[in-house]
Design goal:
9 helices; two-stranded antiparallel sheet
Length: 172
């Protein structure tokens, strides 16, 4: 169930953007079945990519590139996409306190995922950019489920680290 503020109160921009403590506690998302699935499902995907794509996978080169890939990019992307954009999209696409849904996901999550894929088109071919749609939906769902952007940041960093390590192992 996505976080939607009480219609009788006026949420702050920070609340709308998920810049608050996760609703169930800082580490509750690790006990959440969806949070655990988000972590565990990544491993076979990294292995499959390493086997099928192999040397075409690129990994960061140098310490600063790794820090950017694992820390800076997840933080900035999640603040902008799952925080600001998804928070505002949830607010704008809700009727009577209920987020509009397209099947199991909210309209806000789908719209933000389209934007996230478009961002990746700048630096990646179409098939690689489309490959971020699944993880983006997962991160958006996690952001809504926990009413916070912080768990999505951590999972995004984990996804990037795993992808980078898989690419590094394939090329060595």
């Amino acid at each position: 169930m996505p976080f939607l503020p009480d219609p009788s109160s006026t949420p702050t921009l920070a609340q709308e953007c998920g810049l608050q403590r996760p609703s169930q506690g800082w580490w509750a998302w690790l006990r959440d079945p969806y949070g655990m699935l988000a972590l565990l499902a990544a491993v076979p995907i990294w292995l499959a990519m390493a086997l099928w794509v192999g040397p075409a996978m690129r990994h960061p080169v140098g310490v600063l590139a790794w820090v950017s890939f694992i820390v800076i990019q997840p933080v900035l992307e999640e603040l902008v996409f799952r925080g600001l954009l998804q928070g505002q999209a949830l607010r704008l696409s809700s009727l009577h306190g209920q987020a509009l849904r397209l099947g199991p996901v909210t309209l806000a999550n789908v719209l933000v995922t389209v934007c996230f894929v478009a961002l990746h088109l700048r630096a990646q071919p179409l098939d690689w950019a489309l490959a971020v749609a699944g993880p983006s939906l997962v991160l958006g769902h996690l952001r809504e489920r926990m009413a916070s952007v912080w768990p999505a940041m951590l999972v995004h960093a984990y996804y990037n680290a795993g992808f980078g390590l898989a690419a590094l192992l394939v090329q060595n």
